[in-house]
Design goal:
9 helices, alpha+beta, 14% strand, two-stranded antiparallel sheet, four-stranded mixed sheet
């Protein structure tokens, strides 16, 4: 069954007092347009992540985010006590050499000490371990799987809508037949009445019949009806073949449009033209939604 290109997926995995978030969303696009925002710790795995997403999604405008939410107690900045003690020692030595008196209350020192270089420092730079990458990779795979499930659900909804549109066009096409059968006699009668209005005009009835047959053949829509029916059936067959049929369905819809337009140009009755307009409306709904099919 077809899949939609629109979707959203998210997965969260806990590892060593941190939460690894993977989020992915997609919209329709002619090809795969992938943008990523990856936490620095996992940036070395960006190519692997891109290949995984590309093989799973194929098409769409895709945005992928991978970030880490740490425990506040772990992520808080650390005070470098050793360096602070060295600063205090140097300040006391400099004060004594200059004959200055330093306060013994350390609370008076803290505002100054906290502004000294490198007093506040983050924890040491992390290195990505195999265990953590396995956890992050499971988050990536989970988000992609959630997106694919979302796409399948949207694809099922599109398939129901397309099937209804196709059946409506089929019914409208069948509705043309009664008007088509009666219009031959109407055309013949209209031409004869026009000739009879010109009193005294003599005409060859055999030649008139030939001309009428030629004229009626030009307005015949039997071939258009047959081709349109074939396109309707082919659209449904292609839709059931599986995902990755979006472009093909778009081409079939274009061919359907050509047959409907030709039928409209040959329809010289208001009732038939009204039916053609309704078929065009159903087809436009298909063309609009087929852009979302992968």
């Amino acid at each position: 069954m077809i899949q939609s290109m629109t979707g959203y997926g998210k997965c969260v995995v806990e590892f060593n007092q941190k939460k690894i978030h993977a989020e992915i969303k997609s919209l329709n696009s002619k090809a795969l347009d992938l943008t990523t925002r990856i936490a620095p710790l996992y940036r070395e795995k960006e190519m692997e992540i891109r290949q995984t997403i590309s093989s799973a999604l194929e098409r769409g405008k895709v945005e992928f985010n991978l970030w880490v939410e740490k425990d506040e107690a772990v992520s808080v900045s650390q005070i470098n006590g050793t360096l602070m003690a060295e600063y205090v020692k140097q300040i006391r030595t400099a004060s004594e050499s200059l004959g200055m008196i330093c306060s013994d209350n350390m609370a008076d020192w803290m505002p100054m000490l906290l502004r000294m270089p490198d007093i506040m420092s983050r924890a040491e730079v992390e290195e990505l371990t195999d265990e953590e990458w396995a956890a992050a990779r499971s988050a990536v795979d989970g988000a992609i799987a959630a997106l694919v499930d979302f796409r399948k659900q949207e694809g099922e909804a599109l398939a129901v809508k397309f099937t209804q549109n196709i059946e409506n066009i089929r019914q409208y096409l069948a509705g043309i037949e009664p008007y088509e059968k009666g219009r031959t006699e109407k055309i013949r009668q209209r031409i004869i009445e026009a000739l009879e209005q010109h009193v005294g005009v003599d005409y060859d009835k055999n030649r008139l019949e030939q001309e009428m047959i030629y004229y009626i053949e030009k307005l015949d829509i039997s071939e258009e009806k047959q081709r349109l029916t074939n396109h309707l059936n082919y659209f449904l067959e292609t839709m059931r073949d599986g995902c990755g049929q979006g472009k093909k369905l778009g081409f079939i819809a274009q061919e359907m449009g050509r047959e409907i337009n030709t039928t409209g140009s040959k329809s010289n009755q208001a009732e038939m033209q009204n039916i053609v307009v309704k078929m065009k409306d159903e087809l436009e709904q298909i063309k609009e939604q087929v852009l979302n099919v992968m």
